[in-house]
Design a protein that fits this description.
single chain; 158 residues; alpha+beta; two-stranded antiparallel sheet; 15% strand
Length: 158
């Protein structure tokens, strides 16, 4: 399994609108990649134990990996409407990070980015909230994505 910071670096490098890449969007992009991988392969990309909190699937792991990195930081800025926002940025004088991802990890992230990076934040959040784990589990619960992918498949097969 690749390091979490490698997933973060890959997403950052591939993201076309860096100004839209908030910490929340980074966290939920990794969630979507873990969910897609669980559905397609029966395994998550990361070893994150996802929790469904008040703001959807969330964990501190991603933000802590960014904050502890020597390549990235989270910068307080403002969104289009002037409200505060936390944006993921590469530190000055740091080039593209050497990313060590397996082919299937890159392909999974590419699928998620292709599907979501053009979405406005509200659309993106609606997409995240439309995933089976969020629809089927109560707030406050941990999301076992692999088991939930199996359960969804059983329900689809009826």
């Amino acid at each position: 399994m690749s390091l979490l910071i490698d997933f973060i670096a890959y997403i950052y490098d591939k993201y076309t609108r860096k100004e839209a890449l908030s910490d929340a969007r980074m966290v939920k992009t990794i969630y979507l990649a873990d969910w897609l991988s669980a559905v397609e392969t029966g395994k998550q990309l990361t070893d994150i134990r996802w929790k469904f909190d008040n703001y959807g699937p969330y964990v501190k792991d991603v933000v802590e990996a960014i904050s502890g990195s020597d390549s990235f930081e989270i910068v307080e800025t403002k969104n289009f409407y002037g409200a505060p926002k936390k944006q993921v940025e590469r530190l000055p004088n740091v080039g593209n990070t050497h990313v060590r991802l397996k082919k299937h990890e890159r392909e999974t992230l590419d699928k998620v980015l292709e599907e979501t990076q053009h979405m406005y934040f509200r659309q993106f959040i609606d997409h995240v909230y439309g995933t089976y784990p969020v629809l089927s589990q109560p707030k406050g619960s941990y999301l076992d994505l692999v088991e939930l992918a199996k359960k969804q498949q059983r329900e689809l097969l009826g």
